[in-house]
Amino acid sequence: MRLTRRKFVLSALSAGALSALPALFSGCSVSSKAGTAIPAGTSGRQFGSSADIVFPQGFFWGAATASYQIEGSWNEDGKGESIWDRFAHTPGKIKNGDTGDVACDSYHRWREDIALMRAMNLNSYRFSISWPRIQPSGSGGVNPKGIDYYNRLVDGLLEAHIRPFVTLYHWDLPQALEDAGGWPNRDTAARFADYAQLVAQALGDRVSDWMLFNEPDAFLDLGYLEGTHAPGRKSLLDFLRATHIVNLAQGEGFRALKAARPKARVGGAFSMSSCEPAGHSEEDKLAAERAHAITNIWFLEPALRGRYPEALTFLPETAMGVKSGDMEKTRAPLDFIGINLYYRTIASAPAAMERAVHAQEWLFPVKMDPGHEGPMTDIGWEVWPKSLYDMVMRITRDYNRPVIEITESGCAYNDGPDRSGVIHDTRRVSYHHDYLAALAQAMAEGADVRGYHAWSLMDNFEWADGFSQRFGLAYVDYKTQKRIIKDSGRWYAGVAAESRVGPG
Ligand code: FCB
Fold this sequence. Notes:
- By secondary structure, this protein is of the alpha/beta class.
- The protein has 19 helices and 15 strands.
């Protein structure tokens, strides 16, 4: 079981992967830029739990899902194979041999899912489009049956007064594009831009709010470096190249979408985690800055400032395949920044021993560990609401008070129905209560946050963990596909109805 998803720098570099590429990495230097201080305080649960917290009128109360995790119907109505279909069908890749072939069967049960949202009083639904449903082999014209599914879904949401909040890429690349080289291949950026334009043309008369990518940092790390997610590659070079191509795709996709729909609001959903220094030493503080650059802004700085983060100057741009003129192309003045946040990261300088053995300090720029002081969820992630406060404040300060949406936050607790069929998931209520309290504090201090999307609307296929981890506000019985709103879903319905979070 994975602990957190973003430990790659230490694991990749300690495996000695970089030493295989001496020529590419020579001449790299380490920036010593000091960053914004993280507010002091160590308690994970310190935000106003004794009073009502009122959110602004018009705040978006939502839930999030992703195509591969809920739709099923993996080969229906002309859909092409995705890298997740291929990966999950490969024995040994997914816990218990689970696959997303059926998942929550949302491809057929989307009306029931909209009914769940209505019962929870949601006014925003973040879902993703399956690229191979639209372009079965990743290029060429639109598969009409694929786009029809999303037409029906969008119309159904609008009828229910729920904002369709659409992610273009939540990890299910058409397998044909992986066969042609995948994300390390420069052409994939152009393919993504074409796809973005096609979808914007088809749905953009009714959808106005879009995210280009979900968590580039996570899908590239796990899919190309660690190999635990699709497409299952373990190559430092592929990973580095892919990070640059996705940054290019972000810029190209942004422009393509805006060309089709100039008034669209276009952002991204980035995996973030506040990076705290493990101790008080200058080395640990520098490590925290590097961890922040790696974890939070590797895909934000190129979009907003046309450069890689200063604290990442140890990255080898030659190995990444950066060409002259590229950094202009990565620019995408995003209309909002989506934050997916679950936990925090503790950063420290590599031990002296590690440095001595490996001689070059840049081989070990930062060690990143998950926190362990707060309660742990069933998937092994620490509950730490302050991470959300810290991250929202940092993005607010560093990027001049941008519009922010919380595009995901949530927890895996595997509570099931009791004898009367009720799911008392009190720990999930506490989680969302405390993270919302932390968010409210950031908003009171000036952050411009427009919405909160619980991960997830319902239990679903949790990638390499299969169906073993339940994140939903609604329970799914995978044998019958029956959905049951959990206590947390009922609680969230009250929050959404009144735009108010009661005392914890
Ligand atoms: C996020 C992913 C989402 C889901 C949650 C638990 O990193 O974006 O698909 O797996 O984690």
